[in-house]
Amino acid sequence: MYPKPESEKEAIHKIITTIQPDILIVQEMGEEPFLKELQTDLKNLKLYYPYTHLAKGSDDVRHIAVLSKEPFANATSYNELNYKFFKNNKMPVKRGLLELQFKTEDTEWSIFCVHLKSRRWNKPQDYESLKQRIGEATAIRDKIKERCPHPEKSNYLILGDFNDNPKSKTIKRFLKSGKQMLSIILPAKDSRKEVWTHFRESYGVYSQIDYILVSPPFLEKIKAKSASIADPPFTLDASDHRMVYADIVF
Asked: What is the largest CA-CA distance in the chain?
């Protein structure tokens, strides 16, 4: 994966140092040297993340990276996930699922990091890759249920680039399973009360596709029971996505 231009890197650094998250999840990270470069650059800007992890899926150029001030007890990548496509053909969840486990004070909690298929498609029977995205969401949801079979008693976040709108079948997979409530979308707005997280310049389209979801009991730990969207003026110099973040109070 090619490195970002220096101007885009500088804009990314400015956003991160403005928000100063304790735990930073980065989508579409390249190989380990790119993660180390980002860690070093931020350290030079007086923002040090001593704990890092790079989760590699079968997609060999778009990894999920974690930089954290807090130690995590475990970081587990689930790369064996698959789902049924047409004619029962099994397809891999290309970017997998990353689970981070923490213990803060007396609270054990987890972050599940996802990055679902984009709307770009090359299969005529799957317009905008919707079936693929739903398949990935279902496989990931089932793994989360396996890891946390009692969501009414579990503390976790599910977050990342879901590449779909909040009312989509994709997102609904993570909210409920039958009558069982799995998570709640944290409402997120920027300083102007706008909710878009992605700008597709070639189409001139603003959309909401990045989210933080929270298990029902863990909602009590989320400040204001909502998230925020970073919107400094240089945001789109860094990426076509905007940072979504939330404050957890223990």
From this structure: 54
* Residue 85 Rama label (left phi>0; alpha psi -120 to 50; beta): beta
Cα distances (Å, whole numbers) of residue 92 to 65, 80, 87, 135: 20, 7, 15, 9
pTM tops 0.90: yes
CA angle 51, 145, 103 (to 5 degrees): 30
Q: Where are the domains of the chain?
A: 6-202+214-245
CATH of domain 6-202+214-245: 3.60.10.10
Give strand pairing partners of 116.
none
Q: What is the per-residue pLDDT across 63-87, written as a single tens digit (0 to 9) for each?
A: 999 999 999 999 999 988 998 877 6
Mean pLDDT of the 129-134 span: 92
Burial class from Cβ neighbours inside 10 Å (0-12, 13-18, 19+) for residue 2 reads exposed
Instruction: Show Cβ contacts of residue 157 under 8 Å, excluding neighbours closer than 6 positions.
Output: 109, 110, 111, 112, 212, 213, 214, 215, 218, 246
Name the band, by pLDDT with cuts 50, 70 and 90, for residue 212.
very high
CB 165 within 8 A of CB 208: yes
Per-residue pLDDT averaged across 167-172, rounded? 97
What are the CA-CA distances from residue 137 to residues 16, 27, 96, 134, 236 (Å)? 28, 17, 10, 5, 28
